[in-house]
Amino acid sequence: MAVAVFGAALVRGYSGFGYSAMVIAASSLVTNPLNFVAVVVILETAMSLQAAKGAGPDVDWRRVWLLLAGAAVGLPLGLWVLTGVSEDTARAVVSGYVLVMCGVLLAGWRLASEVRGPGNVVAGVVSGLANAPGMGGLPIAAFFAAQPMQATVFRATLIAYFPLLDLYSAPLYFWAGLVSWDTLWASLIALPLTFLGNWLGGRHFFGTDPQEFRRFAIVLLAGLAGLGLLKAAL
Predict the structure, then answer these.
(1) How far apart are CA 192 and CA 187, in angstroms?
(2) Which residues of 31-57 are buried (b: 16+ CB within 10 A; e: fewer)?
C-alpha cells in the first residue's frame, strides 16, 4: 500500500485529482476498502492545505458553498447504505462507481456554459454520496471538467472544497465506526510519502502535459477498479 499511497499522491499533485480514488481502489484488492476511508480523508485534507498557498483569490466561493449544501444531504445517506452491506458488496460498489466515473471523465463531455445555482447543489449531493467511501472528489472533477472553467479557478475551487467536505465528513465517519486508533497511526505513517508525492507532482516531475497525464491516471484508475470488480465477483 505504500507504493499506492506515494503513486496516488504523485498523480494528485500533477493532475489535481485521483488520490482518494486510487488509494481506495488499490486497498479494495487486499482488504475492505472502507477500512481506508478515514485515512484517505485525513491525507487528502493535508494535501489540500499543502497546495492551498496562493489559491485563495481564484476560489469560486459561491460554488463551494452550494456544493457543500448538497454534500450535507448526500453523505449521511451514502454512509447509511455503504456501512450496511458486506465487504464484497462494498468492494463491488466502490469499483463500479470508479469505473463509471472514469468513463465519464474519458468521454470528455463539454457543456456550452458554466453551471450556476441549483446545478451545483445537485453535484454536491452526488459528491456527498460518493464521499461515503472517501471519493467525493471524482464527480466534482468530472463536473468541473465538463464546463468552460479557467484552469486556475478549477484547481483553486477544488482545493477549497475538499478540506471543507472532509471537515464535515470526519464526525460522520466516527459515528459510522470508520475511525479508530489504527486510522491515526496509518495516517501518520503515510503522511511523509503523501507529502513527497504531492510535492513532486506539483512540480510537474514527469515533464509531460498535465492533460495527457490526467488521461493516463484515469486509465490506470479504471484498471484498478476493474480488478476490484473481478475480486468481488470471485
Answers:
(1) 9
(2) eebbbbbbbbbbbbbbbbebbeeebee
CA gap 115, 211 in Å, rounded: 22
- Angle at alpha carbon of residue 163, lines to 88 and 212, rounded to 5°: 75
- Say which DSSP state 195 is in: H
pLDDT tens for residues 158-196? 888 888 888 898 889 888 888 777 777 877 887 787 777
Contact 201, 13 (CB under 8 A): yes
Question: How far is Cα 120 from Cα 69, in angstroms, rounded to an integer?
Answer: 9
Return d(Cα 43, Cα 46) in angstroms, integer. 5
Phi-psi region of 173 (alpha: psi -120 to 50; beta: other; left: phi over 0): alpha
pLDDT for the residue 201: 67
